[in-house]
Write a structure and sequence with these properties.
38% helix, alpha/beta, BirA Bifunctional Protein, domain 2
Length: 381
């Protein structure tokens, strides 16, 4: 696919919305119309307001996770080294799914945006802190480590303290970072459930051919992420400055006071100079959908990301559900959408490397090899 020229923040936001829509995300303003009026947000959304909107939407429709995007000239959480005055944010959220596919979907979407924007990706870094018990065990061990090396950290202004030991990773000097290389690693304190979740993320990234490395220096902020990732970029002529994300289950539950709070989020940060206020209200991308992509099972969802890439390349807008456990509900949604074509991928299709292409108009269907799908897509435009 030809890379887009996104030297300006306006063109970058247009591209972000367009690519995100192919992966199933929609503007949070659009999602907001489905929730009570009391939950409406004036002005630009933030990480917190989007999480509240998505949690409310999921409460109304528990079987369907909410997938939304937004843009803001005032990010609520910035990576180290960026300034609020100069930085804009494009954010993506998936709320209502505890599956590891949530993190993978965000990383895949961000990587696709950066690729098409002409922003070279230099690496994907990940770390896992796990659930609350895992984090508490790690924090206790890390506090002991700082006591042992108090002469290094306290002498430099308390960069490492027992009150918030993880904060030291964001403020450490060169000397302190050398010492932190020997600090306890959070992955060694994960519960079995958290360990399995993180292992699934890594396996799915490998399946997609997305190279990654573990970075034990990635630490949580006040939102106490369970999983963290950062997508590093090379110097480019685009407006992109960096990208981070993670899983925020516990924070969202505390913030909303609701039991359901499974949430993953990722942000692209960019230089916002030249961006006008209206640019931060990105419109839906892609155009009128012509396909509803039905997927049954997590393996089909993962394999289906290849199909989404083909649809993006062919510029054929599609609808899809993040929930892949109910075939009848997806087929009903496809029928309600009134699209001319339905793609179906289940466990058998995953094993065979095929996909079912059904014509809703003619009532016919055929099984197509994935390798042949790009040729078939040319006939569906």
């Amino acid at each position: 696919m030809q890379k887009a020229k996104t030297a300006s923040p306006e063109s970058l936001l247009t591209l972000c919305a367009d690519v995100s829509s192919f992966y199933g995300f929609r503007p949070v303003k659009e999602l907001e119309r489905t929730v009570p009026a009391t939950d409406r947000t004036r002005g630009n959304h933030t990480f917190a307001s989007v999480a509240r909107t998505c949690v409310t939407a999921v409460a109304q429709n528990p079987t369907e996770p909410a997938m939304a995007y937004y843009a803001t000239p005032a990010p609520s959480h910035l990576p180290t080294g960026l300034t609020l005055r100069d930085t804009g944010e494009f954010g993506l959220s998936i709320v209502g799914s505890s599956e590891s596919l949530g993190e993978v979907m965000l990383i895949k979407t961000i990587a696709a945006i950066l690729q098409e924007s002409g922003t070279p990706v230099s690496g994907i870094r990940l770390n896992a802190l796990g659930d609350r018990d895992s984090q508490q065990r790690f924090s206790r061990e890390l506090s002991l480590f700082f006591r042992k090396h108090a002469n290094v950290f306290e002498a430099a202004g308390g960069a490492g303290t027992t009150e918030n030991p993880m904060a030291a990773y964001r403020t450490a000097s060169v000397t302190q970072r050398d010492v932190l290389a020997d600090a306890p690693r959070s992955v060694n304190f994960l519960s079995e459930k958290s360990r399995s979740h993180f292992r699934n993320i890594l396996e799915q990234l490998e399946h997609l051919g997305l190279p990654y490395q573990l970075d034990y220096s990635l630490m949580s902020d006040d939102r106490e992420q369970r999983v963290l990732f950062a997508i590093d970029i090379e110097n480019s002529e685009t407006a992109v400055m960096g990208s981070i994300g993670g899983r925020y289950d516990d924070f969202v539950r505390r913030m909303t006071g609701r039991k359901e709070g499974a949430a993953v989020h990722a942000s692209i940060f960019f230089a916002r100079k030249g961006a006008e206020r209206g640019h931060f209200n990105p419109l839906p991308g892609g155009g009128a959908p012509r396909v509803y992509f039905v997927q049954l099972g997590s393996k089909a969802k993962l394999q289906g990301l290849r199909v989404v890439d083909m649809l993006r390349t062919a510029r054929i807008p599609a609808l899809q559900s993040f929930d892949t456990s109910h075939l009848s509900q997806q087929l009903a949604a496809a029928n309600k959408a009134g699209v001319p074509y339905v793609f179906i991928m289940g466990q058998r299709e995953v094993l065979d490397g095929t996909i079912i292409v059904r014509s809703a108009v003619r009532g016919t269907q055929t099984t197509v090899q994935l390798a042949d799908l790009p040729r078939v897509l040319k006939t569906l435009r």
